[in-house]
Amino acid sequence: MVHAYYRARTYCVTFRNVTRSISVAKLLTKSCSNFLPVRSLAMDTDVACARFTPFSRSWMKSARLSPDAFVQIGLQLAYARLHPNRPPPATYESGTLRRFRLGRTETIRSCSAESVAFTKAMADDTISDSQKCKILRKAIEQHQRYTKMAVSGNGFDRHLLGLRLIAADSGQQTPSFFIDPTYGTANHFLLSTSQITGRQDFGVSFGPVSPDGYGFCYNLQGHHINLMASAFKSKTPNNSARNLLISFAASLLDMRRLLESSE
């Protein structure tokens, strides 16, 4: 038997005279029980990565396109092609609020009416390539507008989060707005995305935030893009991180063809 307690905040086990005893066996059992769910989660996560050389930040800049917007619209098209029978996915992109004191992040919602119009147009053979190109540019421009609005402090997700936390901290009942099914659907992010910025040539990955969703991370370099995708194997068997990257690569190539054919 050992006398132990967990020191709050540091979580270090120290030995002191305390009022109760904890057996080593119980401590080990607790540690193992904490480890097993994590191991199970890791084994259930499907991760794929790739270096995509046909595209780069340099090419997108030369085509007078926002690199981030181009990638995000490409991801919308990739998802629509991979899951044609699913509705458009609520999409989270992390936007920085570091220009503000104590600022952290705001949600950039990449799925828009314009992006949906583009993904539908790409599946319609009766629409000409020139018209598809116009719809693509509208989708890219809309993403740029929303991004600018979000990182300027005019997004709504963090505002609503603040209101919900204020209600919780003050002991109020959760307002009906936050338990409305529409609000739940809007925040069930099937695509959780983030761009890693910087000159360093590396990639990182994170898991999906929804059981039936994907995680998608990208690092735009001068001559290529580092891509990382993740999905859960058991939750939604039809989800595949590798297939998402394949669909994404094909989507970017098709978008590039549209833009070059309209020049």
Can you describe what's shown?
The chain is an alpha/beta fold. The chain has a single domain (46-261), classed as Chloramphenicol Acetyltransferase. The protein is 45% helix and 16% strand. It contains 8 helices and 8 strands. It has helices at residues 24-43, 57-62, 67-82, 113-122, 129-154, 157-169, 181-186, 241-261; strands spanning 5-6, 13-14, 45-52, 91-96, 105-109, 191-195, 214-220, 225-232. The strands form 2 sheets. The chain has a 6-stranded mixed beta sheet with strand order 3-8-7-6-4-5. The protein has a two-stranded antiparallel ribbon with strand order 1-2. A hairpin with a 4-residue loop joins β7 and β8 (225-232). The chain is globular and about 65 Å long. Mean pLDDT is 87; it is low at 1-22. InterPro entries: Carn_acyl_trans, CAT-like_dom_sf, Cho/carn_acyl_trans. Residues 39-240 form the Choline/carnitine acyltransferase domain. This is Choline/carnitine acyltransferase domain-containing protein.
Short description:
It holds the Pfam family Carn_acyltransf. Helix content is 45%, strand content 16%. With 263 residues, the protein is an alpha/beta fold.
Would you state the CATH class?
Alpha Beta
Largest sheet: 6 strands, mixed
Shape: globular
Order of helices and strands: EEHEHHEEHHHHEEEH
Kindly report the oligomeric state of this protein. single chain
The low-confidence runs, each spanning 5 or more residues with pLDDT under 50, are 1-22
CATH topology value? Chloramphenicol Acetyltransferase
Mean pLDDT: 87
The beta-strand count equals: 8
The CATH level-2 architecture is identified as 2-Layer Sandwich
Distance between the termini: 78 Å
Number of domains: 1
* Approximate helicity band: 40-55%
Q: What is the name of the CATH superfamily?
A: Chloramphenicol acetyltransferase-like domain
Helix count equals: 8
Alpha-carbon Rg, integer: 23 Å
Strands of the widest sheet, in order across it, are: 3-8-7-6-4-5
Strand content: 15-25%
